[in-house]
User: Fold these one by one.
Assistant:
Number 1:
Amino acid sequence: MSEIYNLTLIIARRDSADDTPRYQTYEIQAGPIMRFVDLLRTINDEQDPTLTWNSSCEHGQCGTCSMKINARPMLACELLVENAIAMFGTSTFTLEPLEIAPVVRDLVIDSDAAYERVNSVKPYIIEPLPPGSEAEEHQINPDQLEYYVDATRCINCFCCSSACISSHRTFLGPNAMLATIVRVLDPREQEKEERYRKIYSDQGVYRCHTSKACSHVCPKEIDVARFIALAKKGFLPE
Amino acid sequence: MKIDIDTTLSCDVLIIGAGGAALRCAAEILENRPTAQVVALTKVTHPQKSHTSTAQGGLAAVDPKDPLDATVYHMFDTWKGSDCTADQNVVKIICESAWEQILWLENRGMHFSRNRDGRLSKRTFGGHTRNFGEASVYRAVFEADRTGKGIMDTSWGETLKKGIRFLNQTIGVELLIENDWCHGVIAFQQKEGKFIRILSKATIIATGGSGQVYRVTTNCRQNTGDGLALVLQAGLPVMDPEAVQFHPTGIVGPGILASETLRSVGGILRNRALEPFMVDYAPKMRELAPRDLVARAIESEIREDRGITNPDHQIAHVWIDLTHLPDEVHEKQIPEVSSFFKRYVNLDTKSDLCPVRPSNHYHMGGIPTNAWGEVEDHEGHPIGGLYAAGECAAASFHGFNRLGTNSILELITMGSIVGRRVLNYLKDEVKAHHDPDPLIFRSKFEGYLDNSGSESIGILRSELRTLMTDKVSVFRTEESISEAIEVIHEIQERAGKVSIANRRLPMNQELLQRWELDNLLLVATSICHAALYRKESRGAHFRDDYPSRLDEFNHHTLVAVDHGGECHISQRQIDMSLFEAGGEHSEKFGFIERSY
């Protein structure tokens, strides 16, 4: 029989963005490999069906369940009970929504508002280079792809934006920067000028204070700060 | 509590869903008709969160430059893999346009993995062969282990660029069908807590799979068969719902896929007594036997009480033993799956036995359509203005068993085919919006909010999912299916005694889950009745009491549910046009044996 832990979850609750949060305490027992999404589901099933949170794939591929757990932005689907106890040295956890967009209810934020910053950098190829010949793919050297492929792994969970010490009002955020930096480095994009204007605008990379919090919290372990630094240096070879 | 429609919105094209099929379809329409007003609803918080994003392996497509491979081989593999129940007109269309779809994605920025020449890398998968089964062939292009994400990011970007309108966290709750013509949908916007009417010239259902019907599934939490329930509720049939694929090795308890590779590098399946049991089921092939056989072997061990129950998740499983493999194998050949075990069950594949069990993976069955994605009624007549594409649809490309890498190929290909069909339709039939009265959603949602009782949505959902996993999954018998049907009736009755604690409509998670429970129950009902009807074994549908494939069942199953809850079964012919065309290789497309 595996160990059972007695956990205390203190969860920020709000009915809308205008409310001030009230912190509600839930006591719950769970085995070592239960994930935080499992805990929230158990609370819904057994204690309080009104506690509102969100998830989708529940295996770290979509970034829907990002939230702050003891002030650290992370994916609730990836945090196991025994790892959480080891990481924070406590069995009491405070769960709060990411503060990068208005709260819709409890742990759910307005993701449309959050995504507006990503949309503003045009997360697609603006002016595609025609391929070498008709009905063919572009040829991209694998070493060239390797140089920027990590930036393509971003799932827009917004953990980096939440951890970033720059103001959310003035900086578009590390993930939005990644979305445009990828296309600066992608040889299929011809419209680099518009991208530079955004990257070096007053909401762009110079807002970054190089705390590297983005790299530190990224659930996909992308070295976000490396790409931001690359942009700050004008994309000169490292 | 009284429910009203808040606003009415009109558009040219309405897509229910915003995953791979939905957005490939939208992009096709917007690229060719930039003025079209296209609206896409998605249940998730953003299109990027769709289940398509989780697809790992690759996309099957024959490269015309490949001297060893040919489209006819891909067609053959798909037909054989389907256990002779795919529709050959659909198989032909999809396989023939596959490479064109790959180029579409590549030219718009998908980050495919590359070989040294800078061309697209290819890998091989189970069932990909040349010369009609003679030898393996490299047919799958991929973006590392995140091919679905590449498709999703690219198609989302393209539709955003072309001016689509997304309504995120919005569900379609009733199709507006009058005189066999669909005019749009009643939708519920979760965030705002508002019901709206959306009138459209063309409506496309692309809501994805139904994996949540089962307790252990590789599917995301949102895959509750909503599109299937939407058509069933409208009195239309679903096709082949009994064709549900189970992957032999899902990680206990989240159900995450632990790939085939674990067994190909030398992993050994062991039961509670640590005996390597595959030798009893497949003495020669052992762990390398085909997916369905391995799944049945694991399920047999569990059923005969030689499994282990995970104390945290309370789910029975067997072990996969990788501890005897050199460190290099763990680090170089299976790093992703090893990291999944570490991350989700805190086990080290180098030193620990890892818990696995068959996990629901894919629904081959779905909303019946013709080869252009037009939704059909039980007599094969298309419903005007109504289309379906992706996992929720059955055209049918996969028949009773899907080959690895054919699912995301189907998404993008059928998405673009439906898009082209809709373009023609918009050109030809400039109809004014018509506004039929909704019949169902008000009483349904008012009922959800007004019911009283002490039943819990979560507990009923768990009971249903456990029931389906125990009684109607890898193994099925007349007795187990009949028992499931009875219990589903009981759960349906108890669902009427759920009271919703919070009655404010904005972001009301309980209300959404209550609606999902009804969808799960309806889809489970259709699966059970079709499985009971099909007294044979075919592809992923295995009946203990009828273990062979029978010619008398060489057809698709259609299941409809009437207002009294009665199920009605009918049949649809399998399209055999490749066989009937005669000529070279046509004999390969008869009712051949599925043996590997």
Number 2:
Amino acid sequence: MFGLRDGAVSRALYLAFCAFVFVFLVAPILVIVPLSFNAEPYFTFTEGMLRLDPDAWSLRWYDALVEDARWGRALANSLGIGVAAALLATVLGTVAALGLSNPAMPLRRLVTGILISPMVIPVIIAAAGMFFFYSDLRLTQSHFGLILAHAALGTPFVVITVTATLSGFDRNLVRASQSLGAGPLTTFRRVQLPLITPGVLSGALFAFAASFDEVVIVLFMGGLNQRTIPRQMWSGIREEISPTILAAATFLIAFALVFLFAVERLRSRTR
Amino acid sequence: MTERPAVGPPARTRLRAAGLTLPLVAFVGFSFLFPLGTMLSRSVYDPLVADALPETLALLEEWDGETLPGEPVFAAAARELGTALEGRLVGRLGGRVNRVASGMRSVIVRGARAAAEAPAATARETLMGGDPAWGEPATWRAIRTADERFTVRHYLRALDLDRDAGGSIVRQPEELRIYVPLLLRTLMVSGAVTLLCLLLGYPIAHLIANAPPRRARWLILLVLVPFWTSLLVRTTAWIVLLQTHGVVNSLLVALGIVADDGRIAMIYNMTGTLVAMTHVLLPFMVLPLYSVMRTIPPHFMRAASSLGANRRQSFFRVYWPLTLPGTAAGSLLVFILAIGYYITPALVGGSSGQLFSNMIAFHMQTSLNWGLAAALGGILFVVVGALYVVYDRLVGASSLKLG
């Protein structure tokens, strides 16, 4: 539409710069996918790969990934902890968002601050604090402790998405429902919930993703039995750099795409 | 803020609204804020020595600090050190006293071992048999100094300050200043990442906001792909691309731009941290910018140019001011997130690209100086808290949106 100066040249420069930024955003992620099919244990394209020589491509890192029991356990841990944490965060977060978006809510600024804090406070401080506190309660090196910690990290996402859906919500519907004799619970179940369901679901997806991607708290609190996928990637990067982590990363990218499209679908339903 | 009815909502409605938030407030308080608080309290509250050596410290109260203490003090110390050894506290105890006077760790540990394993005729001979330093008043002074339950010492160290012999607070000699320069560097890196994100994010947010709806949806997906991709995956991607034998270097060598033995070190240093953090945080800049730019009607710009403004003027006088809310929201968000970053610097920062959070992790996990880790955490907490208050006043935390 416009660069800073008139003319086709500045327009072309502007588009080229934008193209560069989009490449910067996406290309590093996409580069991982072909490299995970490398037949050699290198992190770069071999000559054979560039010539499209079939021998230079292989599924060996995927074999390694599937055969390594640690990755399987990590996947089970990530899914289990993520689902439980997301459920907890979604229930608590949705209820809190209903209160928060009520115009009568007292102390809104303070309560919002408290509820958003897990998203804002650097996770390293939180992880250190949780390590001490949860080990006093004997909850370190336990799945339950990680679920509590991850649920806390996920709640701000639920509060934000549900509050956003509720901001477009016509409160007259609540009044209408109440004047027709419905109690608060019926009003919630029959009037509010159906309208905010997309927001609740996308909040749940965000909360799950927050747990599924979390590694700092797992590093501080988790034992060998609580290793999650990101934790396994972390030691993969630090200790035994092998293209196996590229194969795992490719799976995670596919996963991210599924989530992205799910959330976008839900979003288009709320508009 | 919604406008208030003239009378104000009835107390019952207010209570019900507050009651709905109560479970989550309690949950976040218990599982997140309370642990945070106890952690931060460690920076000023450190009862380890006071709890392990109560009798010794009580007897040392009456000691003149110049001559060697009497046999009862030695006896109490030997007994309490023996108990500490059984409770496996001696290592941490030694570390704690060591922070008062270096070299004390081994004195404490050897004394405790001697008390448990090689008792002599008197407690004094026992301890001095473990380490002759027990015969020096300086050792006892160090123990007496380490007894305070409440201390500002950790904060002094975290701010590169120290007490001189007279007890007044002085700055550390230049070569010993670590934490303030690191904090400044972290602030500078966060600022640089914020600027880079703004520079890269502003044009594409503008492009998306002015594209036809169908194309805009696809372009926004390109921004959201990295947003949803695991942080570990994105960090791996940059290692793959930037390492010495990675994709970029190999490409440069193949093109003859760089000699094979002259491959550029682009990762495991500050460059790696900057590039990877910019990539990770860019979506947080683009999304708030986009949502503000979308609401700016295109005819504003046409009006400006029909009134005689050239493109530069109409951009700087009309468009840019209108996007300031988005710029502020995105920049503050990126800055707040950058300042506490841990994983990316830890994995791609090498030794020169480490940030403040990495130092906290170091003192938590490696040096086990938890008091200092807590003090550093407290400083980080205050910085982030102040930025959050600015964000809340300027942008409004309740208007935070995701994607």
Number 3:
Amino acid sequence: MTRPSSSLLRQPLDKPLLYDSSDRVVPLGDAIGAGGEGTVFEINGHPKLLAKVYHKASLNDQHDHKLRTLVSLGAEDLLGIAAWPRALLFDPRTKAVRGLMMDRVADAHPLHELYGTTSRSRTFPQAQWGHLVLAARNLAAAFGTLHERGVLVGDVNQGNLLVDGKMCVRMIDCDSFQVTHRKHVFRCPVGTPHFTPPELQSMKLADVDRTAEHDAFGLAILIFHLLFVGRHPFAGRYQGPGDMTIEKAIAERRFAFSHNRSDTQVDPPPASLRLDDLPHGIGELFERAFRADIDNPVRPKPEEWIGELETLIKQRRVCPIEEAHVYSSASLDCPWCRIENAGGPSFFLNIGAVDGTSESRLAALDAQLEKIEAIQFPELPTLTLKLPRLPMAMQSAKAPQRGTADWLAAGWIGSAALCLGGAFCGPVLAAGAVGSLATAGMLAFGKAGKQRRQTLVEADAALNERLRKLAAGSSKISADHGKRLEEYDAYAASVSTGIQRYKADTEDMETILRQLRIEQKEDFLRGYSIRDYRRRIPGLTPQMVAMLDSYSIDSAYHVQKILLTGVPGLTPAVMLELQAWRTRVEEKFEYKAEEGITERELNADKQEATRRFKIALARKILQGAKRMRSMAFAAQGQLDQAIAVYKRHVEQWRGLAHQRQQTQAARAPWERKLNLNLATVIGAGVGAPLVGALLWLIVR
Amino acid sequence: MDQLSAESAFSSVEFAENPEPRVPCVLVVDTSTSMQGLKLIELSKGLATYRDQLMKDALASKRVEVGIITFGGRVQRRTKFVTAPDFVPPQLDAIGGTPMGEAILEAITMVEERKQAYRENGIAYYRPWIFLITDGEPNDHWKPVCSRVEAGEKDKSFCFFAVGVEGANMEVLSEISVRKPLWLMGLKFHELFTWLSNSQQAVSQSSPGEEVALQDPTSGPTGWAAI
């Protein structure tokens, strides 16, 4: 282990004289680090190489063999991902192995500099969450390469990995890795408890042959650190009694972010990403890695991580409000905004646009707020929604084809005329009567006449039915639109309150905070329905609840003396009990600094607190504006769709109506009037001779 | 009305931003009138050294947290727990008597509160350090403190170190401290704080719970203590 320790650096180090395998002197330069095992030197004339020299003048056989094996394993793929030992260093006199030479990993930093928020902004200012995912992918790839060669890291920890600006990962301290040579296992004698799998916790690691499953656990922990910006998967809020150390949590498989909370008894820490913010597949891999069966663990292999992480990289999304927020498309809203809005830290900042100070961030948000154009909620096209009317019957140009019914009707007219004329001549009257009865009868009961009447009745019935449906459709469209408008208006009102507060001066902040607190409390009280808590309020009968309900008193919020006194049937004792209940509910209320600041912070630094408040608020407003825009957009879409359907139905109706009118126009006008319905036809058929007969009687 | 605790209101940001495991250390510093002059000047310089040393180590600057309690006339929490980048050594002024007993109890309380905050925020931690620096003897009830320190050391709630500066009553210190109290040679505060920072760096690079052998402060060129 060669973790650099500054305390040892200050001690003078004598540089030993060392040879390489072909007895040439290796000129050691400055010492750049030292640890318990040895010292790392630069090599003069070879800026890309380093030499590690062990403190011990002679290594034991085991160690000697291990180093020789390591050097013999050195292949291009390993040299690409690790500072793999390239050659050995020998004591010129005893020819014993004293150290080794390896590549210097330049321009790279320990992994924690990438996942730590403060160090990231300094060391990797351009890195967003997508970069961390990429580093995790490359980390898995490095493990994959080692495992392919039968090499195990053994002591996985955040210290023996370096990551460069391109997010490529390189391993250092490779001499502690576990390697196998001709079935002989050269063990890794050390471990880091926070990265050690449950089955190895509290075991003497020098006596353990590590397996790929053990490495898989450490790999998953490292990936978790990257994806969850520094959080350890087993560090959460333990709900049970006593202290829960990480080692114990690992041994008991208490994965703090697990979905299976009843098993783990641990809540995830506040202001952190959640497992649901990641694609389901990655959540599954974490659950498998950290909740694996101890006796027969099957943890995710590097290839599985690579697959899922590459998908995540491809499906990442950029927050529309804060460009610096990159997140998985699996989550609906930006989780970083959610964390910040709840008063959490800003894990990622847009370095290009802002320098991280609250002033510059506020200025950037100001500019964005200005850009919120007036959002138009679509209007209801009332004209389009009017019900259609019957079109005028168009006279067709060519003479219509007269049918049997038309001739029969014409015959009846003739007969009727005969009847009237026959008042002076009996036989004519008789002939007219016969003619009238015959033609009317044939029209009334004959196929042709019947069909004409039926077509009209059917057409009218169909048209009326459709018209009814159209009316219903039209009013549904209006109602739906009204509901959406109402929702939109309510939302717009809250956004505009936000904008007012945003524009408020620093002096008004106290008032605003007080308002926020009151609003939050009122919402909280509204959440306690009297009906649900009836049994907790002594003396409150269901009848009283119903009575209270009818007076719109249904939650703890409404339990106010002035409101209660008006309600009949409420005894003074119950009234007091209700008020006592409200007090109990009130005591449970805990103010959450929704916009991230409290009065206390306001008192500490008014300017800064106001700016932070405004940043949170501006983000909320922008989110609100985005939501308003999408509400308007959705409303327009739904309206357009509904109107299109409505229009299609109107067109169909018009088609039918036109057809009806055309059919009617094709009938001879006299036939249309005579053959209106059965009664008319029969009435006319019988009526004409009767009138004729009456006239005959009068005249005679 | 609803109460909002300062810990839960402010610390979640700090811990979310830096979820690294913590090495908390309370410095319990004597600022009674006897410390006036060179002693306090050197001690203040030592605090700056301490900060600078911690800053040199990327991991220690994220993990080691310093809190300061002073006792001179009355017991005061001068610095809440902060990591090196946020640590501004306070201005120390000598005044009043030596309420050492109360100061130690306050340090134990401070450590317990901090541990609670760690637990609430899902932060792993190493055994806290309580580091007492004095040049006198307590002028309050210090006897009950002995059992508290002993109990704390026994169940590994914290490590208690006592450093006596010229004038300190070492007998009382060895009664209070389970570990042997250290006697500061001259005014080697610089060396003392360098040692403190190095030891904590070593601890911060181990894993919580692991025992780390500390460098012997009484020997070598960087030694600063006598027993």
Number 4:
Amino acid sequence: MSAPAVVLRALLVVVVALALATLGSRTSVLLPDLVLPVVVAGALLSGTTGGLLLGLAAGWVVDLVPPGAAVLGAGALAYAACGLLAGAGRREGLVPWGWVAAVGAAASALLAGCRVAVAVATGAPVSLPGVAGSFVLTATLCALVVPLLVRAERRLASGRTA
Amino acid sequence: MPRPALRPDPRPRRRLATALVLLTALAGALDLAGAPGPGAVRAVGGTVLGPLERVLSHGTSAPPSAAGEALEAATDAELDRAQGVRAAAYARLVAAPETRGRQFVAARVVAVGRVGAAGPERVTIDAGTRDGVRADTAVVSADGLVGRVVSVSPWTADVLLLGAADLTVAVRVAPSGVLGSVGSGAQGSRRRPATQLDLSAVQRGRLTRGAAVTTLGGLDGGPFPPGLRVGTVADVDTDPAQLVPGASVTPSADLAALDVVGVLVGTARTTPRAPATGTATGPAGAGAGAGTAG
């Protein structure tokens, strides 16, 4: 992973996490997870270990953006698991769009599962329609945004080496 | 210099990843156990990211409705007095029974946590230690109790909302005044609908539908002063097999649509309470009179 890519991802994660927390206080509309596409795109480019580290870092940012997570670190571990999963979906060469969408959907499902698990473990109420809606929105967002992020990062890398 | 074609050794990165995952798990366990370390980490996050949230929330405020536009058009003087919060909502808060005779700091909700799978459990407000907000103080809206401040940074504070798993409030239920406690609807002996709270009373047969639930008041100026509206009894459990008499409670504040809230910063009692003397006269008290004066 090149240094500009790391800085860019970090900036993107912080901005997106802040935007999500601020938007949540403005509207009661169900919102997709905006951080996951960044993690999935990074993991698809850098593999399992890179995906895990990226997910862990992004999850810490999400956990620390006020008001923070109910259990500090739970989000970090969930995003790390998603990064690991998406990193396992890394393929060399040109990847069809369907594969990227499938990896995004799998990561969204894992994130939703982790959310429900944390909620059950801490005794928080779980609304399954809300979780399902959030999963559908996040998977759709991943399918749309991840290819763009991957392309942008590839262009950044090739522009640097050229 | 072109990089060598060989891939770098993956082992150090894997070790780093494993160590970081373990550290994260440790932080989570410490947080669950209530150790002070994670609280400090949260405060650092609030100090660094809280001001950004304040800027984002106030700078890009698009009024969602005509009513919102009317509020935005309120006079500057009122907005200044309300520390930047919207004037009409502030006026409602000032007129609410929760703030009568009590000092409070007005604040706006600037961010909402996402972890609770059914509605928010934590919110961030734009007032912090510099505004006089301390941890373990009650947060109210114009409609009633909202929650308790759990962590504070200089410019923001995080509030645990009513209905969160970790928040239990001692209450008194009208009209009989029976005591009880209100907690998360997902935790009692019976599962409540997502928006409702769980009430456990100390005595059976004293709960009626529609009864008002207010706070009992904490020991030594604890977080919740007495008489704050918590909600109304929505449904009384009739299951005879239940050990604890229970009911579901609809919160009086709309916790999903919070905007302007007040943090009660009243001071604790400092003067001792003078002992009182009964004034009844008559034959009932056989041993009375020994300690009475006059």
